[in-house]
Amino acid sequence: MPWRGHNQMFKKIIDFWHKKMADQNTAGQDLLNLVDRQKMPGHIAIIMDGNGRWAQRRGLPRAAGHRAGVESLREVIKLCCELNIQVLTVYAFSTENWKRPQDEVNILMGLLVEYINKEINELHQNGVRINPIGRVGDLPRPAVEALIKAVKLTRENKTLILNVALNYGGRTEIIDAVRAIAADVKVGSLKPGQIDTDIVSSYLYTAGQPDPDLLIRPSADFRISNFLLWQLAYTEFWFTSTLWPDFRRSHLLQALVDFQRRERRFGGLK
């Protein structure tokens, strides 16, 4: 009898999750029908937040949350490819994240290498170009080597540019740009009077790319956390209380539908 009770309980749990996934798929299809393919954002940026809280609520180690977040990233990349989004930028590891416990940092770096090794062939086949941004050279050697391999393999791909922000900070990016500009002014290849917004943009990690049209932040935190400070000047923000490991294509579609209903003025009047 006890085992029969356990089996019935597990069956109820499985049935619940099957129904939940079916409901999400139905909602996703309904939202997909509302998306205007002619008004898609060219560049989406996402702060992948909430992994630790997701794990904590389930009594799991934080590493379990980071691992669960990989599935969300996989779904988002796939949908961006389907919808012909040009650029997707994801905030994976900030310059401030080094302050976390060393064990967690080691797990994150290991998960990065594992993700690249496991996903790179499929990403390549789907036309995704991997573009790390940040002070990537300061990452552990295995991570740097895996990223170099991924960049070389995917550099000719055209479907989607995937910017992976690693050891990234918005202020650090601006500092690096200012230093590079100052160096060029010093040697005479750039005149101070030439410096404008376009020039500054050309010295950023995202040089040559459009600024984000849409920023998505899960986990109910209403801040940008030192992310793309220059590039977000006229970006539309979309926040959700959903934690990143629970973020699915239906959430991205909801963000897109909301984005397309907004009127963007870029500081002017229509």
Strand arrangement within the widest β-sheet reads 3-4-2-1-5-6
Poorly predicted tracts of residues: 13-22
Average predicted local confidence, pLDDT: 92
CATH homolog superfamily: Decaprenyl diphosphate synthase-like
Distance between the first and last residues' Cα: 70 Å
Portion of residues in beta strands equals 5-15%
Briefly note the CATH topology name: Undecaprenyl pyrophosphate synthetase
Oligomer: single chain
* CATH-derived architecture: 3-Layer(aba) Sandwich
What's the β-strand tally?
6
Task: Work out the count of structural domains.
Answer: 1
Roughly how much helix do the residues carry, as a percent range? Answer: 40-55%
CATH level-1 class: Alpha Beta
Number of helices: 8
Question: Care to describe what's here?
Answer:
With 270 residues, the protein is an alpha/beta fold. It has a single domain, classed as Decaprenyl diphosphate synthase-like (Undecaprenyl pyrophosphate synthetase, 3-Layer(aba) Sandwich), CATH 3.40.1180. The protein has helices at residues 2-34, 51-57, 62-82, 102-125, 141-154, 170-187, 197-201, 249-261; strands at 43-47, 87-94, 128-133, 160-168, 214-217, 236-239. Strands 3-4-2-1-5-6 form a 6-stranded parallel beta sheet, with helices on both faces. Strand 3 (128-133), helix 5 (141-154) and strand 4 form a beta-alpha-beta unit. Helix 4 runs parallel beside helix 5. It is globular, with a radius of gyration of 21 Å. Residues 13-22 have low confidence and may be disordered.
